[in-house]
Write the structure tokens for this entry.
Amino acid sequence: MSRLSEAFSAARAQGRTALVCYAMGGDGDTAALLRAIDAAGADVIELGLPFSDPIADGPVVQAAATRAIAARTTLRDLLSMTSGLRLRAPLVAMGYMNPVESMGSRAFARALREAGLCGAIVPDLPLEEAQPVRDDLAAEGLDLVPLVAPTTPKERAARIARTARGFVYYVSVTGVTGARAALPEDLEARLAELRAVSSVPVAVGFGISRPEQAAALKGKADGVVVGSAVVALHHERGVDAVAGLVRSLRSAL
Amino acid sequence: MKEMPPILSGSTVAPPDARGRFGAYGGRFVPETLIPALDELEGAWNEARGDPRYREELTELLRTYAGRPTPLFRADRLAKALGLAGRVYLKREDLLHTGAHKLNNTLGQALLAKRMGKRRVIAETGAGQHGVATATVCALLGLECIVYMGTEDVRRQSPNVVRMKLLGAEVRSVDAGSRTLKDAMNEAIRDWVTNVRTTYYCIGSAAGPHPYPVMVRELQKIIGEEIAEQIVDAEGRLPDAVVACVGGGSNAIGALHRFVREPSVTLYGVEAAGHGLESGKHGASLAKGRPGVLHGSRSYVLQTEDGQIAEAHSISAGLDYPGVGPELSHLRDQGRLTVLSATDTEALQAFQTLARSEGILCALESAHAIAALPQVRGALIAVNLSGRGDKDLGTVIEALK
């Protein structure tokens, strides 16, 4: 079983829903941030790879990417930084297709493996285009985590789930990343449908920022992803504040 | 020519293939949320283009509202002023309603939006011509219209911002990245991801995820079909060369597509060289870019070594874009498209030359095509004059100070 899938099983064995946290690479001291998130109890960590034109992201993650690029963060620098971290939680890269294609997906997969990452999430790489990247990652023993959206028809969701390795990422809302006051009413039903057809864990993300929202999803998914809230808190109040949020999210789950 | 040729003639033959690939380019690189909407759009488009009622309605609007066919004008004084030995014809898309070729596409897409029951239309715009053309058809058909435009373009194309507002559209300024077309398109895509169930996204370039590149081409190819008929009427033969400026590529693929199958016709695309091709400040994606993924499809993209999208530069907002459509990318690789470029200075010079020799103030985008004419080979040349210059007067006055 992949390290990513195992992280979800381990949380379940403890009676918890797994906590997945996102951090933007290169926005401030990323090594300190990843260590803090890891120590505070995240089960899986997504490492955001900054991109100039992040079409699936809301203002918080966009601004973080802009800061990271302005600080001259490169993919290679980020990966060489993570390779020395020795975190407990598995790391999965989350980044857009152009930088992957620019490096070449085979070289990208090799670089991820060498840096100790477990896989990648590429939000602008849908099912029909994904196979070459999925194969190149698999050749290095890494997972391509696909996304399913609220607009995805049932039959298509099942097809996506069949290609999934590591986990499936269910996007809770139609829209970009960032905190939402409320989540859709049919979210639980959609998660149940997806879990019924998926042989890998299902994590739910987009819009979830507060421990109460996470608590409401406990047991409804295998994992809950919190991204923009971590990125914003890190930028505004630093690593210790992030650690506090991660702890309260974990105890809510 | 009194009547325009039949719209959407011929079947859609490959390329693209069923997945929207033009050779190595095209496809769909968008968030999963949009894939079902693109499937729905593709289905609706295929149904519409085969429906005689849709084609009749579009034809009637293109004829009586937009002003098709547009004239093909023999520009002898321009040819002389540029020192050209051969004859030059200008395809007067600048005379189309709203002052550019953009209306060909927005009429077709807005009729489609209405058929699909989508009452909210969004668009991105650079020079503002596509924004104005979208606002216009939304007014005509009673649809809600929201146009995303970079703040830099809002500044330099302010007359078009006023036009869009007068037409009832809401203009949303985008203050991110280079504050130009690229960033406007990012924001339009984010709007579409958020409001996908109720919203029609009207893309202005032959770019974006499948089926946009093929749909926009099909709606713009009337330009080249008219050129072919008109020049045969006037000269008894097809031209030796067809020339168009290239930003995202909708006027270029529209003018050139008819001639791809004619081996005797050389196809030229003229990109913005900005401050010069070696300056790093230009919009020459085909000449200086690498294959990459931007705004939903694979094509030539200006980018850094690390795969970040580079900022383009051009004096003309419509060419200030770091990508280009997939079909033009494919034609370039096949050697079918000859890629030229013109700098800001050369475009300004050509703008003035055309004004003084023929009494036509063209768009700065189209001025790039004029500027490249001395590099074009052939005794009979057709140039697509994609738009008129009113929107650029502020920029031109400033640049000529």
